[in-house]
Amino acid sequence: MDLFKSPLYSKYVNSNAKLVNFAGWEMPISFSGLIKEHESVRSSAGFFDISHMGVICIKGINPKDYIQKFFPSNLYSFSQGQGLYTVMLNEKGGIIDDLIIYDLGIQENDISELILIVNASRYEVDFRWIKNNLNTDKISITNFKKDKVLLALQGKNSFNLFEEWIESSISYIPNFGCQYKMFDHISSKEKIFFSKTGYTGENGLEILLSKKSAINLWDFLISKNISPCGLGARDTLRLEAGMHLYGQDINEETSPYEAGLGWLVNLENNHEFFGRSFLEEQSRLGIHKKLVGLSIEGKAIGRKGCEVFKGEENIGTITSGSWSPTKQKAIAFAYINTSHAFLNNEVQILIRGKKFKGFITKRAFYKKKI
To answer: If I label 353, which of 81, 215, 288, 315 is the partner at 20 to 30 A Cα–Cα?
Structure first.
């Protein structure tokens, strides 16, 4: 099967990136090495081509009225120029995808626009789920990315670098804020979308732009000695920051409450949404498993599928695990039986036939310095 390729694929080749198949895309796992790329983001800045991710545009008059039923979060809690992290659920309260919705406001002819940035492996599922359940011809749903590039510029120096490139300040834009505008010195023909969001636990931006402008930005960042980064560093950074990976830590069999995402469920808003009755019952009766952090002693790394024990009792399973370059220890996420899922509980992790001591922690192992 032929793999999808980013418009910036030639940049990977010219940079001697190590490439892998990720969700049907040929993507870089690393450029200069995972540890170096990870540390660049933590200490200064790094950038990622995330063009494999899907971008869905929803247009219409008051489109939030029509798509509110897909999300347990109140879509009227954010407005033009802002974004909202949330989950899309099935009828049983399982997570179809986790995503960010951005409100672009009224763009033209009194038509409002929302864009959804979704996981690569879920784009077609998400698109089909929304389209098949809209039940209206007053709202359009389209692919907003098409042949554009999505870049993530992350790290404490990311804002200053972007401001230098666009020759404009973005200090007035709040965290999770976004803009969709033209910068004449870059292109007089295209609007560039950017948001103060990311997947690393650092300050950062996600930027949607044409291939020509993306090459311009790539070359600018290289000229500033900013490292391109691959999926390897992206995974260790997000794991340290306590962020979920769809398909490992969450899926259609896990609920927001089990995944530690109950804060996204606004039952008090009284709006109807797919899975509401299931989540109401789960809220009332409680959950049987919970996603937690694990700190593992020694050098062994607990990978996806490793079992967690309390004595002789199997109490859970690891979903994501890695060595933390920042903390210099093995860390992981695991679903643990609720009765054992309390902080500092000592457990054992079975790794290649041997048990290693670990402790249950909060999922966020790293917090950026303010």
So the answer is: 288
